[in-house]
Amino acid sequence: MPINDFLKELLLIPSVSGDESEVALSLLNCINQRKSKWKAVPEIFHGDEFHDCILLRFGTPRTAVFAHVDTTGFMVRYANQLIPVGGPELIPGTRLVGRDSYGEISCNLVVEGEALFHDFPRKIDRGTRLSFAQEIRIDSEFIQAAYLDNRLGVFSALQLCETLEDGWVVFTTYEEHGGGSMPFLLQFIQVTAPVKQALISDITWITDGVHHHEGVVISIRDKFIPRKKFIDRIIQLVQQSGIPFQLEVEAYGGSDGREIQFSPYTIDWCFIGAPEDLVHSPDEKVSLRDLESMVKVYRYLLKEL
What's the whole-model pTM score? Predict the structure, then answer.
């Protein structure tokens, strides 16, 4: 699966939950530069009323695809204390980077029992967000980097835009730290061009039943359980496509699908994404074959659903 320069640029942009403005601007610029070459030119919704979310409406939507743009990370508390944002892996010595009113920051994560600290030699402004230092590694089989969750979900959604004629593609915020953007996004969609089904373009886990190089994962359940009738339809369609895929059944985890299920709207949903190893660490690892399968499945399903 060829990795384009824009994905590499995305991986270098910090967007810890609640601070997604920079990545949203980059995404918007990319969309505006590319949209004239897409099969259909979408109507674009963004701006203050959507915070840092972006909605693309293609034709007459039947299905909405959601991809979150935020990441896990850390927030500076008092003195040299840190608080996790979302669920980052707490690995002592991990390099963290950020920026405050005094300038650039590069420091190490210090773990003392349940307490977290940084070792930067000067005071850091309270509320400063710190991210994992980025190191992108790509070979013939894998991509490895921080924040493949969910930069690869965003990448897949953008690839979908190239061929999509009817549908919503929506870039959401806050997902890694409890959600919060989906309610107003769903309300807008259901007023503007309502849908009855949704797909979650996100990244899942390598487990004892999910492996590298065996295809994109269709999640039958995580902590939350989508409607079986819809999941069965998705599985049947992907089986007919001949695209490699795996099935996931887990007891934990969640996504923007949770907020669809808890919403007042009767929208079926399914999480579909490539699996990764070393989740929420600086070394997340995804098979390029599985990423290719993910892109193909989304393009196929948005035509068939």
Answer: 0.97
